[in-house]
């Protein structure tokens, strides 16, 4: 069984928002709603400064706090490690939004259901790549099986020493190269 | 604010309801003659819990549109919200039964009342655990918060019960001096708990420190200092302390109670004190939700 994860190379990300737009199209989201948020972070002291653009979405935590707090079991983790929301069970209590360390969830105000990045589970089931990965203009995103040492994503993590955003906040399945 | 004013109001009403139930049970045992206090506490308890639950339903948009989904609330035992749903269900059933018996002027089943007491306490504690277990918000993620919520719940419960009793029966509030003593103790503890919580959490965590500075000197400082500390705590503490000081001067006799009730103070001081406590109880919860700075993850 695969255990899906992703690498995001912020050194390659140019902040073009193509991933975000393709995600919105794939998930039929309105313009003001999106599952990918962009953050900018400046580090260092002049003249040695680095400006990073960091796309953040659901990190598909292995021990996801959203899954344990959800009172209705609407949020669950699939066998492949993808965290999903069953939109027929969600009551819109927003407990998961409060519990998420990454602010990765948004509420759809037409249905009241809370949603987020789903690693494009339906595309992945067909053997395709998530929309944000296949659309990225600079190949900053790599998706695949974390349990397979020969997968592109596993190799990239080792080669570039990719790390979760905050390993202390739980076992995330998105690794960042920064 | 992911959780806003509606949730603050719910947390407040759940605490008030649980506190009123405990107050009425206490009054029923300690002051069998002060029937008004018992009756008011027993009646307002399920009413305010009911209003709180309606607010929750309105806030849960997806459930509101498809109410059958609320059944799923009972399914995930790792969620404090599910556990709270059970607590509230049992509490609500007991409180509604006791209120009904009171209306029908029948004797209540003792066992149901004890079950009610247990689940009233559980309901008050759970409102603290609900937000206390959220690791993403360090201001909430402290062991003091559930204790603070229980103390505040009992205090607002006493306040709600005393306002209702004062309006219905001038004399009765001068009869139940030990409730006033408990109330004073709770209010003083609340100040202590708030500052302990702020001092300790803000020195361990950056996000909590931001939350605390939002409250003490930032965006919410006026509401914190004037609304919570002065109106919600200092005013009632002062008046309550003065009342107790005065009442200790004369022996508690029927005549004394008559004098106190017909005196110039009458019920005014009670109404002011207890309304201030209620305002403070709501402001406390509102502020804790509003000043929730999440962990900075970048």
Number of DSSP strand runs of chain A = 9
Q: In order across it, which strands form the biggest sheet of chain A?
A: 8-1-9
The largest sheet of chain A, given as strand count, sense and whether it forms a barrel, is: 3 strands, mixed
Distance between the termini of chain B: 20 Å
Output the radius of gyration of chain B: 20 Å
Number of discrete helical segments of chain A: 6
Oligomer: heterodimer
Shape field of chain A: globular
Polypeptide structure, described:
- The complex is a heterodimer of chains A (178) and B (298).
- Chain A has 178 residues and is of the alpha+beta class.
- Chain A is 21% helix and 24% strand.
- Chain A contains 6 helices and 9 strands, in the order E-H-E-E-H-E-E-H-E-E-H-H-E-H-E.
- Chain A has helices at residues 18-26, 65-69, 95-99, 121-125, 131-135, 152-160; strands spanning 4-9, 37-45, 48-56, 75-77, 83-85, 106-107, 114-115, 141-145, 174-177.
- Chain A has a 3-stranded mixed beta sheet with strand order 8-1-9. In chain A, strands 2-3 form a two-stranded antiparallel ribbon. A two-stranded antiparallel ribbon of chain A has the order 4-5.
- Chain B has 298 residues and is mostly helical.
- Chain B is built from 11 helices and no strands.
- Chain B is globular, with a radius of gyration of 20 Å.
- The two termini of chain B are 20 Å apart.
- The model of chain B has no long low-confidence stretch (mean pLDDT 93).
- Chains A and B meet through helix 2 and helix 3 of A and helix 3 and helix 4 of B.
């Amino acid at each position: 069984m695969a255990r899906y994860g992703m690498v995001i190379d912020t050194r390659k990300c140019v902040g073009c928002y193509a991933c975000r737009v393709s995600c919105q199209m794939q998930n039929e989201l309105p313009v003001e709603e999106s599952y990918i948020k962009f953050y900018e972070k400046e580090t260092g002291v002049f003249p040695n400064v680095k400006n990073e653009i960091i796309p953040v979405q659901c990190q598909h935590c292995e021990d996801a706090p959203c899954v344990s707090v959800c009172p209705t079991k609407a949020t669950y983790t699939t066998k492949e490690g993808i965290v999903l929301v069953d939109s027929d069970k969600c009551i819109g209590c927003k407990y998961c939004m409060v519990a998420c360390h990454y602010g990765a969830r948004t509420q759809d105000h037409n249905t009241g259901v809370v949603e987020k990045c789903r690693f494009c589970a339906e595309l992945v089931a067909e053997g395709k790549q998530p929309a944000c990965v296949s659309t990225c203009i600079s190949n900053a995103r790599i998706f695949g099986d974390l349990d397979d040492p020969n997968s592109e994503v596993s190799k990239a993590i080792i080669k570039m020493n990719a790390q979760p955003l905050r390993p202390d906040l739980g076992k995330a399945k998105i690794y960042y190269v920064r | 604010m992911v959780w806003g004013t509606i949730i603050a109001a719910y947390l407040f009403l759940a605490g008030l309801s649980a506190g009123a139930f405990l107050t009425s049970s206490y009054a029923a045992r300690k002051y069998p003659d002060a029937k008004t206090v018992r009756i008011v506490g027993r009646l307002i308890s399920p009413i305010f819990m009911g209003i709180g639950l309606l607010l929750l339903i309105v806030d849960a948009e997806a459930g509101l549109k498809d109410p059958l989904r609320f059944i799923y609330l009972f399914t995930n035992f790792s969620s404090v919200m599910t556990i709270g749903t059970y607590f509230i269900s049992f509490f609500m059933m007991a409180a509604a039964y006791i209120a009904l018996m009171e209306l029908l002027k029948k004797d209540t089943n003792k066992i149901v009342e004890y079950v009610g007491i247990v689940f009233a306490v559980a309901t008050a504690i759970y409102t603290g655990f609900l937000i206390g277990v959220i690791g993403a918000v360090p201001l909430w993620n402290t062991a003091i918060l559930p204790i603070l919520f229980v103390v505040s719940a009992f205090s607002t419960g006493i306040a709600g019960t005393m306002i209702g009793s004062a309006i219905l029966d001038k004399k009765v509030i001068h009869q139940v001096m030990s409730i006033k003593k408990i109330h004073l103790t709770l209010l003083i503890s609340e100040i202590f708990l708030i500052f302990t919580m702020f001092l300790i959490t803000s020195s361990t965590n950056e996000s909590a420190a931001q939350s605390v500075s939002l409250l003490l000197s930032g965006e919410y400082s006026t509401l914190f200092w004037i609304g919570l500390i002065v109106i919600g705590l200092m005013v009632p503490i002062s008046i309550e302390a003065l009342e107790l000081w005065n009442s200790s001067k004369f022996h508690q006799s029927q005549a004394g109670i008559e004098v106190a009730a017909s005196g110039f103070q009458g019920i005014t001081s009670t109404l002011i004190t207890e309304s201030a406590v209620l305002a403070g109880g709501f402001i406390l919860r509102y502020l804790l939700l509003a000043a929730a700075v999440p962990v900075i993850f970048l």
